Amino acid sequence: xxxxxxxxxxxxxxxxxxxxxxxxxxxxxxxxxxxxxxxxxxxxxxxxxxxxxxxxxxxxxxxxxxxxxxxxxxxxxxxxxxxxxxxxxxxxxxxxxxxxxxxxxxxxxxxxxxxxxxxxxxxxxxxxxxxxxxxxxxxxxxxxxxxxxxxxxxxxxxxxxxxxxxxxxxxxxxxxxxxxxxxxxxxxxxxxxxxxxxxxxxxxxxxxxxxxxxxxxxxxxxxxxxxxxxxxxxxxxxxxxxxxxxxxxxxxxxxxxxxxxxxxxxxxxxxxxxxxxxxxxxxxxxxxxxxxxxxxxxxxxxxxxxxxxxxxxxxxxxxxxxxxxxxxxxxxxxxxxxxxxxxxxxxxxxxxxxxxxxxxxxxxxxxxxxxxxxxxxxxxxxxxxxxxxxxxxxxxxxxxxxxxxxxxxxxxxxxxxxxxxxxxxxxxxxxxxxxxxxxx
Length: 440
Description:
single chain, alpha+beta, five-stranded antiparallel β-sheet, 72% helix, rod-shaped
């Protein structure tokens, strides 16, 4: 491109020099023709003036001759002189005419040179316009090529930047196989750039580059969501583990009374850990929340049971002390139920038994965890129910200040022998016994 421009410039310079040379020659010829024409004009005018004078003199002499009968010698000489001057004037006029012809020829040559210079000037202007347009086209082509190179470089730079960022994303987790397909589409674009085919880079690189941008945005969004869910699951798991560390599992089983519920709750936490290992963070959080919610409810129930157990122990101690004060023989208590391993079920009913001082009126009480008491007076013969009332009143007096003991109904049990009286103190709809532990 540079060599072609230089050749055009050289040709244009030679044409300009030729035009200048022709113009100079035309100007020189015009100046010479003008000078010669001026000189020839002056001589021609002078010769015409002298010839006119000669003609006038000849006419005068001829007139004189006609008027005289004879020729005078002096006049003849004068006529001869006039003739000589006339001949000289004619010669001068002839020479002036020749010079005038030469001047006309020079003027013609000057006009030809001028016309040639004008034609060459017009051609020069045309060629100069063509060269100017060609130079402008080449500058525009260079600008377009430079712009294409700039855009191609920007395209490749963005491509490299996105690919570097893509390597930092776990795209195979969220969009498996798609990155390889996009990279395959971008391979011809890289090859075109290495061959400096910038126009092809721009034409072929836009679609896969846009696809890569969209793919990056989608993967980034998926990864951000995955990171957020993972961090939320980690936070939830750490909080649960911290809370669980403060819970004695054996005590929880003991006081909630439902070992299978505790086992299921802990198994739910284990499932949450397995979900976390499988990166199913939503399921992991759900299992953590549900499992920990069950543990909290079990812990709350265990705490309440423990409080009720302690309150029942205080009631049992008060009852046993009252029986002992009433001279009952060695009051004792035991739990009505045992667990599968043979241990007492401390959350089941507490049984208190005391043998009466005589052979009538043994006391047997069954106290549930809520403090409801089912009282049975044994060994009461038929017709001596008043003794039962007397013994219960004595127990009530012994519990004064400790337990608010009220009995609304009593009678013989339907399914016991005649020598025992059962005093049901808790009815389904109307509580027969209410007791409150007085505050210390």
